[in-house]
Specification:
Elements (H helix, E strand, L loop, with lengths): L1 E6 L11 E6 L2 E6 L9 H33 L7 H36 L8 H27 L2 H11 L6 H4 L3 E4 L5 E4 L1
Antiparallel strand pairs: 1-2, 2-3, 4-5
Helix pairs in contact: 1-2, 2-3
Organism: Anopheles farauti
GO molecular function, one term: G protein-coupled receptor activity
Main location: membrane
Length: about 190
């Protein structure tokens, strides 16, 4: 069970924010943070955070991507050919996956933060602490997943990647240009 005390007169307080001391099992943990009485309510803060960092961006990317897709599908670029429709379907699938990835990766931490602010979620067990950490990691993963999605959902990228991985050390394109790999030279390269 964790207990907390706040020392408002602590001379080591950072930028006027006092240290909060937590007792967890046999350890005392210190953190600094907002004073409850001097700050806006935590539920209001976290609901505003949810709106500004999740709901508004999700609505914004959804609306902008829908606008982009509607222009793509209405355009006559590529004509009405089967290949053009196939390309438009690939782009649509990619956009849906990118938006779904953002929504699903950021959702868990947003829910946990709001629930913590109204004392519904209390990270007082290893499972709950682990759940919060995993939720943070998922949210941070969202920042780096888009380039991977664009790359692996692109047919051109997959073809090039397969071509490179079929040859040792990715030298497939070098071998086709007349470069010879000499095993006796420990795979050093020289021109033929």
């Amino acid at each position: 069970m964790a207990t907390m005390t706040i020392d408002e007169n602590d001379e080591n307080a950072v930028y006027g924010w006092p240290k909060k001391k937590f007792k967890y099992q046999d350890r005392e943990i210190e953190t600094c943070g907002f004073l409850e009485k001097d700050s806006p309510s935590w539920p209001a803060f976290h609901i505003a955070f949810l709106l500004s960092s999740y709901v508004v961006p999700l609505i914004l990317i959804s609306v902008l991507y829908m606008w982009m897709l509607s222009r793509l599908w209405r355009s006559s670029v590529g004509g009405r050919s089967a290949e053009s429709k196939k390309g438009k379907k690939r782009v649509t699938r990619l956009v849906v996956i990118v938006v779904a990835a953002f929504a699903s990766l950021w959702f868990p931490i947003q829910v946990i933060l709001v629930l913590k602010s109204v004392d519904v979620f209390v990270p007082n067990t290893h499972f709950k602490i682990s759940l919060q950490i995993v939720s943070h990691v998922l949210a941070y993963t969202s920042s780096c997943i888009n380039p991977l999605l664009y790359a692996f959902l692109s047919e051109n990228f997959r073809k090039a990647f397969r071509k490179v991985t079929r040859h040792p050390v990715g030298l497939g394109s070098l071998c086709s240009q007349g470069t010879v790999i000499a095993p006796e030279d420990n795979f050093s390269l020289y021109q033929a």
